[in-house]
Design a protein that fits this description.
One of its GO terms (molecular function) is transmembrane transporter activity. By secondary structure, the chain is mainly alpha-helical. The chain is built from 23 helices and four strands.
Amino acid sequence: MSVISKSPEETASIHGIGADVLRQEEARHPREGMPKWQWQIIILGNGIMSLVNGYDVSNVANVQILIYKAFGHIELLPWISLAYSVVNMATIPLARKLTGICELRTLCLVSCLLVMAGSALSGAAPNVQAVIVGRALLALGGAPMYQIALTYNVVFAYPHELGLAQAVLGAFFAVGLITGPIIGGAFADNEHTTWRWAFYIVLPLTALVSLCIFFYPSYRVPSRKSALTNLKEFDWIGCVLHIGTFILLGLSCIFSGPTWAWNSGSTIAVWVLLGVVFAAYVAQQTLCLFTTPERRIFPVSILRKSRVVVLTFVCSTCNAVCYGVNLYYTPIYFAFTRGYGPLAAAVRLLPFVCVFIVMTFFSGGLLPAVKYYMPFYVVGGILILVGAGVEQTITAHSSEAKVLGLEALIGAGVGLLWQLAAPVSTMVLEPHERLDAMALVNMAALGGTAIALSIAGTIYQNVGYILVESALDGFGYSSHDVRELLAGADSPILRGGHPEVLVLVVDAITKTILRCFYITLAASAICFIAACCMKFEALPFKKPEAPKGSESAEKTPSV
């Protein structure tokens, strides 16, 4: 068990903030003496934070077409869904630093206010630009909120509990993701509500989080420096370069092709600028320009220190890529090939999500007993790789049972690995490095999803346009009609109802979705290779030995 030492000579850099932080040593665990009900409220509050985070990723999937019909601007349509994921990933390192500087309960309440403001703005938006800005505000609040949940888990959970505590976050996140399209579509289809309630529903959930926060223990990462001093020493250059990299990545992927021609000056300029900013970011973090190794915005030091952390980060990122691509593009497959509406298509994700949740708890509970982490990663990588490989044999006429079975197989592999990086990393790193490891876990999960959706969106819009336009050559449809079709709008191509046209369109869309699934195949292969490079070693999971007379002496608090 660990507690903060009182010796100022033993300093550490938690989160790389450049502060002299008192190291933890084997002594009194922060959870010791905490009532069981308080720990359970922490688990509940963290779960709701994760639920809101997952819901905000996907809640526009079934309402963005209605937003387009209300406000127009089809060129901005992809930003409605991607704004949250891209801005969230862009601000995760900033959130990581703030959790190392601020008192966590106060920071969480501020994050809740940002989420509520973003929800209200998106729901009451007078135009599509306001919806996008509201989604960005949601991400600004969601990034630190999720990071705070991870921090409370790693600080207050006992080592043998951390896997299950992380499984709770993963399960709530998955529930939020799957219910996002369903709830959004239900509001949109109800004559007494509109798509705006898909955003308003976040308000009471966030209010519930705020209520739970008042029962959280107050916690601030120990530092000998004031919060103001830590802010002055902040790696602001690295922060700006990180944010710039991901915002430019989103701009490049979304606007290249649908809005700007690939050979246009705008497209060339934005891709060149992305390359320059990314190169500057890598150089600045590697060479510690205008900062120090301890203050860098990205936790490079723990990646250099441990091969295990690097490999689990790679596996987690690839895992999130597979998760994002299948979650977004499987419903599109069912919508075009079976003619399902938004709700019916979203329900077809249940095999994927249900198996994902079960496997998340299975791995989180079994790892402390088995202790060997490599077999989990190898088996998970194999499940995803096999599922992604067979997925390439899908056609427009494949049976629904086959597609759902492949979903379940991929969901099993993704769920098996989803939260393993947290307990594995905390076991191989020093106590003062574990919060940085949680930031990597967060970046892998949300960053992998954001990258996957950006790249898959580029493939879907550009390759899909080429295939559909080629298939419909000679039928007299405009490029705008094709763009509306790909966006899921009520395109003249579908309204015409010509059987030959529909067959050609479905075949072209199916081929496009399979190209998107190439991303899953590549990511699963990388994940499997990284898993094979791990050591076959056991981790020292131990249950706490509580002092006599305390609550934990009678029974170890559980998740």
